[in-house]
UniProtKB/TrEMBL annotation:
Residues 148-213 form the HTH luxR-type domain. This is Response regulator transcription factor. Keywords: DNA-binding, Phosphoprotein, Transcription, Transcription regulation. CDD domains: LuxR_C_like (cd06170), REC_NarL-like (cd17535). It comes from the Bacteria. The keyword Plastid does not apply.
């Protein structure tokens, strides 16, 4: 079971999402938070696997709440899926820098939200090609200080190729097809890269790839 914590300052939104999540056989709602600070506290006490986090909340916004969760060693396994009203919200990129694993817009279809929760809970990032990826690449192409984690300078040439494709939103199967590898080998490369650069998940790999200059918008990474 995926233990889900819902953080949103709108009671009706939380209630709607709670009904949806509880309707899935593989997940359950273990808490609801109306502020960012409450979300951080409940992430600890409710032993959540994943937090669906609204960006704009009182007391402590979703970005700072995400940063606190990502920095807490006791919450190392907790994933954050950010909620936003518009997919052009550049606060989303700040949330990715803070440690979020992806984001969805609030008008997402019910089945898509459940799939997004499963994807992020499984350790993948929700950064598929399209407007979302263009937003991320455009903003992350302008570094906001040094990367919070490591960089790609010690990666092999093959690992740099794999990292570039991860930054483009490709999953392991697509990376394998692009580089002529088996999916297992691609997965092994991704895991090894995460260990070398100190990334929590694939979303942080995307941040590192753009902030380090390994990948730039509109430029092929392979």
């Amino acid at each position: 079971m995926i233990r889900v914590l819902l953080a949103d300052d709108q009671t009706l939104v939380r209630a709607s999402f709670a009904m949806l999540v509880d309707s899935a056989s593989d997940m359950e709602v273990v808490g609801q938070a109306g502020t960012g600070r409450e979300a951080v506290e409940l992430a600890r006490s409710a032993r959540a696997d994943l937090v669906v986090m609204d960006v704009r909340m009182p007391d402590l916004d979703g970005i700072e709440a995400t940063r606190l969760i990502a920095a807490d060693d006791d919450l190392a396994g907790v994933k954050v899926l950010v909620l936003t009203t518009y997919d052009t919200d550049e606060h989303v990129v700040e949330a990715l820098r803070a440690g979020a694993s992806g984001f969805v817009v609030k008008d997402i279809r019910p089945a898509e939200l459940l799939d997004a929760i499963r994807t992020v809970a499984a350790g993948e990032s929700l950064l598929s090609p399209g407007p979302t990826a263009r937003l991320i690449s455009r903003v992350l192409a302008v570094p906001d200080g040094p990367p919070r984690t490591g960089g790609p300078e010690h990666l092999s040439e093959r690992e740099r190729q794999v990292l570039g494709l991860v930054a483009r939103g490709l999953n392991n199967t697509e990376i394998a097809e692009a580089l002529g590898l088996s999916p297992l080998t691609a997965k092994t490369h991704v895991s090894r890269i995460m260990g070398k650069v100190g990334a929590r998940d694939r979303a942080q790999l995307v941040v590192i790839a753009y902030e380090s200059g390994l990948v730039a918008p509109g430029i092929s990474s392979a």
